[in-house]
Write a structure and sequence with these properties.
Two copies of one chain form a homodimer.
Chain A: E1 5-11, H1 13-16, H2 24-35, E2 38-45, H3 49-62, E3 65-69, H4 80-88, E4 92-94, H5 96-109, H6 115-118, E5 122-124, E6 128-130, E7 139-142, E8 145-148, H7 152-162, E9 173-179, H8 183-196, E10 201-209, E11 212-221, H9 224-237
Parallel strand pairs in A: 1-2, 1-3, 3-8
Antiparallel strand pairs in A: 4-5, 6-7, 7-8, 9-11, 10-11
Chain lengths: 240, 240
Amino acid sequence: MPNPTAAMLVIGDEILSGRTRDANMHHLAGELARAGIDLKEVRVVSDDGDAIVAAVQALRAAYDTVFTSGGIGPTHDDITADNVARAFGVPIDVREDARALLEAHYARVGQELNKARLRMARIPEGAALIDNPVSIAPGFSLENVHVMAGVPAIFKAMVESVLPTLTGGQPLVSETLEIRRGEGDIAGPLADLAERYPELSLGSYPFQRDGMFGANVVIRGGDGAQVAAALAELQAAFPS
Amino acid sequence: MPNPTAAMLVIGDEILSGRTRDANMHHLAGELARAGIDLKEVRVVSDDGDAIVAAVQALRAAYDTVFTSGGIGPTHDDITADNVARAFGVPIDVREDARALLEAHYARVGQELNKARLRMARIPEGAALIDNPVSIAPGFSLENVHVMAGVPAIFKAMVESVLPTLTGGQPLVSETLEIRRGEGDIAGPLADLAERYPELSLGSYPFQRDGMFGANVVIRGGDGAQVAAALAELQAAFPS
């Protein structure tokens, strides 16, 4: 049975303007690989309602699960929750359980639950809350879409809350061989190997280091014995 | 006149599997911002022909310019050139000018221009070559799609070749103010400011550091005087 599939939607002008380097994509990709869920696509869109709606609808139709990051804070440019609701055609309003979480939190830290902070209790109808142990304001899951914060520490915590609720697949076994030869020398033997091991995925990732060319060849598959056999053949073909 | 728009398509299983952290997106985003070209969307897809074709067609229809990174090397998993040709419905084959570049290069370094390396001379009909000063194998531009290597040093060099050929817009002026207050305290005054400066883009990017919450508020716009005025108001509202 093929592994479940996933996509990620990163919402944020700060990534597209070059101001911030996204960290959540790399984190989620690693977590999903360990869980046996195949991350098939990532999209980064700006803080634009129509772009968010279109991406949510396209991704959730094409993949089993969608994770979003960013745009659920209290400021005017936090428009993710409203546009996820719009993508599903469901109403959104302040929800009492989310408001109660925020009320208790801000009472504890002695800050006011003002109108801006209350926006973080706006939850689309039918959604389940995602726990936020870092700063309390929750994310939410609506059918197959999981809406999470963009701040890396909060994003990580929310991924930890959501992942155990998903059905995973077979985690991939992965082996890497660094070959200090030009990719053009590796390509022929590698293509042969790929043909003889059709169930494995063989990738070649070239690098350039100290003026030398080389490639990391990565062998991935669900069957550890097959991965080991292919690795042994590759090592024999390219002794270090 | 609004700035020209762009999208980026990253092709590579290594990003989606969590093995490699993408570096090219952040680099391109910064270069485009400086050139006054608005990067509106990034997609990351796997080494899958249909996914590449669909993304190229969607992005080049929606935005003025598309940049791709990855999948143009000599190995079996380098399938970008063929699928960009397919997206345009044009034939692709080894082209003599590209072959001549590779022949001269491999003769110079004393390596064989074998069948695998010759794949890097496959160029879709009608494309213009993109110079590769690092490892010679060229990228190519086909109408509004610029196909470049994934290796960061080569990607950067190719961006440098392509950018001067594009019509830029007005580079954004950007100012950042770090405010050591919860976003919920910033949100109200910030929304007011955003309303009074409709031509500026005001973004709030929360952070958490040493157990304290704060936000970087970024003010962006084409008119430096307006940006400075809005920054002064924000500084007055949140004295440090």
